[in-house]
Inverse folding.
């Protein structure tokens, strides 16, 4: 196995020199990857068009619907989304649109707060804007593991208890959520399931000399821990 963290097409050129049997690309950018004649499977978002390789994709819209519904069932009616509101990033667009559709379906008002980035400090910094708003939400959906980690720390530093004062649900269903200061309820495709689907797809792509399903959206699952609870009275 050969691993590269270079830009996608640069990595492709490297792999071709080694005459690999197939390639797995983690690509969330919008441009098309030049694959040549090498079997390729990409993990990214299904908004991509004009591609001739299979894409394994999480169902981000369904993820947000499950997260919103989970909080709604706890009695929350003021649910904010905190994440990157980047119109050029298709993955982030799908998350935001999924949140908005789920809120609209339940006849709830949407509240989105832009982190301006995807790292821990971006989530931490966004909490100031959230709390300076006229009304503090009773629940927050964080757009990623790193963002939610920053949100959690910022709320704790302001003596806001999770989930007593504000509930928090994060996108990204990864094991690290269990070890956060407050074990995080999260939504997404578990990494072991994702890895299995990607490996199965590339093996099929190598062994079967025909096109396979171009876009496969994986069903997300909710992992319930301790960061979400009933809405405060």
């Amino acid at each position: 196995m050969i691993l590269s963290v270079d830009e996608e097409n640069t990595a492709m050129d490297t792999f071709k020199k080694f005459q690999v049997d197939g390639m797995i690309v983690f690509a969330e950018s919008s441009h098309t990857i030049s694959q040549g004649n090498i079997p390729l499977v990409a993990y990214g978002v299904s908004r991509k068009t004009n591609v001739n390789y299979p894409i394994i994709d999480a169902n981000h819209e369904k993820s947000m619907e499950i997260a919103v519904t989970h909080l709604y069932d706890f009695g929350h009616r003021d649910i904010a989304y905190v994440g990157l509101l980047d119109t050029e990033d298709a993955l982030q667009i799908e998350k935001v649109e999924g949140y908005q559709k789920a809120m609209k379906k339940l006849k709830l008002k949407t509240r989105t707060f832009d982190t301006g980035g995807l790292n821990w400090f971006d989530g931490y910094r966004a909490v100031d804007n959230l709390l300076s708003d006229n009304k503090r939400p009773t629940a927050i959906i964080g757009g990623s593991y790193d963002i939610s980690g920053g949100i959690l720390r910022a709320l704790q530093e302001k003596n806001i208890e999770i989930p007593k004062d504000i509930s928090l649900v994060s996108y990204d269903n990864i094991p690290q959520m269990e070890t956060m200061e407050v074990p995080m309820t999260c939504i997404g495709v578990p990494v072991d399931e994702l890895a299995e689907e990607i490996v199965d797809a590339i093996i099929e792509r190598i062994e079967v000399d025909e096109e396979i399903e171009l876009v496969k959206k994986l069903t997300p699952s909710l992992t319930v821990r301790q960061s979400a609870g009933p809405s405060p009275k």
